[in-house]
């Protein structure tokens, strides 16, 4: 993807070591960037309204973040739900910690906590 | 109006079984009964971080989210917060 104006935004990643045990794969994705989003689709082409909304919010802060498209990998998709005990997507992680899904991100945007949190992650 | 009180009674009961003082409202967002807008009001949310509040509900709904519910939009408030927001009237 060309980015002539160097606009900071999300970058979809692929796994570097998909042969590792599932828990290791999940941990390495969660820690792949200070701000990491598990979503349906990619930042350029979200496949779900809730994922699209979180992308819009993250992009509004003009920060670097990375994402993983859970629709491309059934093991990650089901495994993360169990690992994080969070049954839905998207899931936003900051500094390796689960923040929540779309509803929490929206609420934190409105009360100003999201900006503080995201800036602390850089 | 009456639809709401009968629809999704099983899910409301599931939440109320764990959070006994809960006031629960559920709306079908898409007409397909699998994208649900869920409002839960309870004093048990008092002093808990929003993430913890949502986790309480997610824990209750985990099994249903594996089967018939595809996505939920969740709002959690204490009774005081709900009155302030105008979403609950005594």
Describe this protein's structure.
The complex is a heterodimer of chains A (122) and B (90). Chain A is of the alpha/beta class. Chain A has a single domain, classed as 3-Layer(aba) Sandwich (Glutaredoxin). Helices cover 41% and strands 17% of the residues of chain A. The radius of gyration of chain A is 14 Å and the shape is globular. Chain B has a single domain (2-82), classed as GMP Synthetase, Chain A, domain 3 (2-Layer Sandwich), CATH 3.30.300.90. Helix content of chain B is 43%, strand content 22%. Chain B has helices at residues 2-6, 9-18, 50-66, 79-85; strands at 23-28, 35-41, 71-77. A 3-stranded mixed β-sheet of chain B has the order 1-2-3. The relative contact order of chain B is 0.19. The interface between A and B is medium-sized, with 15 and 15 residues.
Write a brief caption for the model.
The complex is a heterodimer of chains A (122) and B (90). Chain A is of the alpha/beta class and 122 residues long.
Could you give the topology of this structure?
The complex is a heterodimer of chains A (122) and B (90).
Chain A: E1 10-12, H1 22-30, E2 35-39, H2 49-60, E3 65-69, H3 74-84, E4 91-94, E5 97-100, H4 102-111, H5 113-120
Parallel strand pairs in A: 1-3, 2-3
Antiparallel strand pairs in A: 2-4, 4-5
Helix pairs in contact in A: 1-3, 2-4
Chain B: H1 2-6, H2 9-18, E1 23-28, E2 35-41, H3 50-66, E3 71-77, H4 79-85
Parallel strand pairs in B: 2-3
Antiparallel strand pairs in B: 1-2
Overall average residue pLDDT of chain B: 90
Secondary-structure element string of chain A: EHEHEHEEHH
What is the CATH C level class of chain A, in words? Alpha Beta
Give the total of beta strands of chain B: 3
**Largest sheet, spatial ordering of strands of chain B:** 1-2-3
- Share in helix of chain A: 40-55%
What is the CATH topology of chain B?
GMP Synthetase, Chain A, domain 3
**Strand order in space, largest sheet of chain A:** 1-3-2-4-5
Count of helix runs of chain B:
4
How many structural domains in the coordinates of chain B? 1
Tally of DSSP β-strands of chain A = 5
Mean pLDDT of chain A comes to 92
**In DSSP terms, counting alpha (H) and pi (I) runs of 4 or more, how many helices of chain A?**
5
Low-pLDDT segments of chain A: none
Poorly predicted spans of chain B: 1-5
**Beta content of chain A:** 15-25%
